[in-house]
């Protein structure tokens, strides 16, 4: 993974930080960096802190939302602006690459159909919202060694630890190969009990996603308690009106949902450790049969 661009941005930001900014920033990092680095709020200490975040996969050239949240929390708005501008440029680049990948496997489009693509959202791929927080390690199911642009999310395996909060693995079917279903890595570490193994019929596409946030108190090794949103209760709905089972348990949280007209679910990214802290869905454009 190429982190060089983000490293250059971090160096640029250092000149904008006061001594107090560094102290607040190191306090925010908490147990995410070693104690000896946290207690050294100098320029060298802050650079070591950033290196530690890279080493622990808390930030990377592909995902640095954690840093944006940190600088927002301590009020360094210049740093937030710089990072968000870089993040937006990355999104545009990623969507463009995804569009080229899909175009390469599609047959030529007649002019009338091509106009449909241009009229709505003007993109073959939509990068959905980020639901949840920036805590945990980033994952991206599209990096599976056998994932191709023909795969699409088609099912789910759910586990939990009897606390109504799940870990997920996702099934991906292939629109061009009846045998080539792949399974993602497990996201989250709730493995005590097996809840459900479910997938939709071949070529049935997901059009809407629902889920909820639960506020959970997490206790860190130093005894600090922090309340964080945890993703749970994930449920999928297809273009045919079918729904996957719901596993929301007895606890009720804040609901979220996402769908885009004329788009179906492609794959998911997010952040997780013990629990799933964030999910982000990618959607690709579909054409009406008529």
UniProtKB/TrEMBL annotation:
A Pfam family that the UniProt record links to this protein: Jacalin
A single GO BP: regulation of apoptotic process
Coiled coil: none
SUPFAM superfamilies membership: DEATH domain, Mannose-binding lectins
Ranges of residues in domain DED: 5-85
Residue ranges of domain Jacalin-type lectin in the record: 125-285
Domain of life from the UniProt record: Eukaryota
Matches recorded under InterPro entries: DEATH-like_dom_sf, DED_dom, Jacalin-like_lectin_dom, Jacalin-like_lectin_dom_sf
Name assigned to this protein: Uncharacterized protein
Native source species: Adineta steineri
Organism taxonomic ancestry: Eukaryota, Metazoa, Spiralia, Gnathifera, Rotifera
